[in-house]
Design a protein that fits this description.
Length: 439
Amino acid sequence: MKLEELEGKKRFYKRCAWLFIFFAFFVSALVGRLVYLQLWSKARYANLARAQRIQPTLIDPQRGNIYDRNYELLAKSVDAYSIHVIPSKDRNHREAAELLSAHLNMDADEIEALFLEHEEKQTNFWLARKLSFETANRIRELTIPGIRLITRPQRFYPKGSLAAHVIGIAGIDNQGLEGLEYYYDQFLKGTPGTIQVERDAVQRRIPGGYENLIPPVNGSDLVLTLDSVIQYIAEKELKAAVSATESDAGVIMIMNPKTGEILANAVYPTFDPNDYQSYPALNRRNIAVTDLYEPGSTFKIFTAAAAIDLGIVDAEREFYSGPSWSVGGGSVRSSNIYGHGRINFLEAIEKSDNIAFAQISVEMGSARFYPYLASFGFGKKTGIDFPGEAAGIVPKPGQIAHGETLQWANIGFGQGIAVTPLQLLMATAAVANGGRVMR
C-alpha cells in the first residue's frame, strides 16, 4: 500500500511539474509579446492610434483668374461647400440618411446605400457638392459622426456666355476641361496644400490638439488679348446674322493684323459655362479653331496674291468668262449663269468670277501655287494656344493621280481644300500687313 501511495505522489508531482512548465512558458510568451509591443512596435501602434484621431485634408489652391486685355474679369474661383463622408462605427446609417435627405435633393435610401457600400470598403466619398452657405450650416448643426463639411473652390464666370468658347470650362475638382482653362491648366491650377488636425469621434476639431499645415500655392492669373467690348459686339452681330440667314452656326474673328492679337472670337450657338451641362456638347466647340470648311470665294485673295507675285497677272490682263469652262476632264461653272464675258483682272476680282480664278490657278500650276499656300499657313496648324486645332487639308503637287488639273482649277476659287476660320483670318491679315504671317 505504501508503494502505491509513493507511485501516486510521483505521478502528482510529475503533473504539477508539467503544469508549471506550461504556465512558465505561457507567462514568458506573454511577457515577450508585451516587451515586443512596447519596444519594437510602439511607434507603429502609436501611429495607428494617431491616424484614427488625425485626418489629413487636402487644401485646394485658388485657381488663377482669367482677364481680358483691359483686366476685365472673365473667370474666377468662389467658395462652395461639399459633404465629405468617412467610415464611422458610431454612425446610425439609416438615421443619418433620413436627417441628410431632408436638406439634400437625395432619397434617404440612396444615401443609406452609399453609407453601407463605403463602410464595407472602408473608403471615403463625396456625398454632395456645390451646397449653399445656408444648406451647409444646417448640415453642420446635425453633428453626424463621419460627416465633414469642406469648403472647396468652384469656378465662376461673371460675364456668362461672353467668350465662353475661348475661356472654356473647369470641372468640380478644379481641373480645366476645355478651352483655355484646359490648355493653361498647369499654369492656372496651382499646387494643393495639406492640413492635419486632431478630431474627436464625430470629426470635430479638438481645441489644442495636434495641427500641421502645408499651405497651398495658388495658381497664376491669365491675361488674354481679347477685348470684352469688341467680343460682345461680335457675338451680338453674329447671333443676329445666324438668325437672319437661318444658318446652323457662325463665326466672327477679329484680329489686329500688325500684331497678330486676336481681339474677338465669337461662335454661335453658344453656352453659359456656369451651367454647361445644360447645353449640347457641340455648342462648346470653338469651331473657329477645330472645324474645317471650304473657304469658297474668300480664297480668291490668295490666288490673286500668288499670281501677282509671280508676274502672271496685272490689272489689265483679260479673261473670257462664259457659263462654264472645260478643263482637266471636267468643267468649272461661272458664278453667273451666263458668265461675265470678256473682263480684266480687276473686274474678275470685283465680280468674284470663278472661271478667271480657275484659269489663273491652272496657269500657275500646283508646283508654283502650292508653296504660296503653304507660306500663307494653309495645310498646317497656326500654333495658337488652344486645344484641338485642326491643320486643314491642302493637296500637295502630284498627290492626286488623276484629275489634278481640275482639282487645282477648283482650288483657285476656294473649292477642293479645307481650312479653319482661324487660318483664313491669319492669311488675310498677312495680305493686309504687307505679307507677314503673324502668330
